[in-house]
Amino acid sequence: MKRGWLLKLLSLTGLGLPSLGLGFVLWPSPIDPVPFTPSPALPETGVLAPNDALRDPDRTQKIGPDQLNYPEDIAFDAQGRMYVGNRDRPNAVIGSGDVNARIDRVTFTPDGGYQIEEFVNLPGGGPLDLRFDQAGDLLVSSWGQGLIAVSPAGQVRPIVPEGEMIEGRPYGYSDGIAIATDGKIYHTQGTDDSYTQQPPVISFIANTGPGRLIVTDPDTGNSQVLIDDLSFGNGVVLAPDESYVLVADQLRYRILRYWLKGEKAGEQDIWIDSLPGMPHNLYRDQKNRIWVALNRPRVGLGDQIRASRFLAQQVAKVPFLVTGQDVENAVLDESTRGAGSVLAMDFDANILLSLQNPPISMNTLSAAVLHQEYVYIGTIGGGPVLRYRLDKLD
Description:
Elements (H helix, E strand, L loop, with lengths): L1 H11 L4 H10 L33 E4 L10 E3 L5 E5 L15 E7 L5 E8 L5 E6 L5 E5 L3 E5 L5 E6 L3 E2 L2 E2 L3 E6 L5 E5 L10 H7 L4 E6 L6 E8 L2 E6 L5 E6 L4 E6 L8 E5 L4 E8 L5 E8 L2 H7 L2 H7 L25 E5 L5 E6 L8 E7 L2 E6 L5 E5 L5
Antiparallel strand pairs: 1-26, 2-3, 3-4, 4-5, 6-7, 7-8, 8-9, 10-11, 12-13, 13-14, 14-15, 16-17, 17-18, 18-19, 20-21, 21-22, 22-23, 24-25, 25-26
Helix pairs in contact: 3-4
């Protein structure tokens, strides 16, 4: 009925479907995309062969079901207590913080149980990456607040406030964190602002790289931009000798390296660019392995679209065409395959382990942290934390 009415209207106004299509093409696009074709993904063989490791009932346990929501990152203190970001609902209204944003502390008991308590409330913010510094303060990337530090007593102080100007652009959407032995903080800015109204798919197909890798000296407050065109800057990790820093170039399926020392100091290159999905947080364990959370697999249709400037311009007018899986409205059917996986790598970019197929309730993985014999896995697409018992990994 509605379709017939629309065709009649077009006929009466002297317009036809070809004219309508031409009008759509001529309608200005909201983006000026940069064409991008990613390198082919590594083959799904060997270590990367499909598996259901994160569904193994003998190895997995959910920590905090119905209590820990959207735990984007995970950190452990010197006493072995786990800290996670928590909220009742993320970024419910554009321009506001998460609903009841907070950091919770999980204390594990000798009998194998655990207790969850609130560590600090973050009104107006939303906790993302978490890292402890040498003084025992918990550094937090909090959208809406910026890069902040939380003392053991729960006192919050800003390090790089939301909106602070850094080399001509405001700091917003604070994301990844790595802390050097000299106290300098290497951190990322995901996008140009904290609460962007631009759908994530637009950033994906535009490939204009508004993210940044920044280093801040907390003693002086001085910040310097190291990389200024990340496609949503995310996780950060330092090399064991701190000669370089690695950073997730998330929407391009790769990890970049920025040299801090030696002949290449100040230069950047691609450390690995053939990942099977989008790298989120990065974590270095005590044996100098890198744990990479891939939040979702590659987007085949989206990659074809962003390879063409014309197609990307047209799709930007109707972004819902390639939004893919909606993690907020995913059917919570445990038989459904969840998005995301976990990789363990060495600093020669060799993949040592791949853990795949998370529960759909944890759709879209964001962090993997090794503590003792377990890998603790966070998610930005639901909750809770998933604990995976690990075999010996040399």
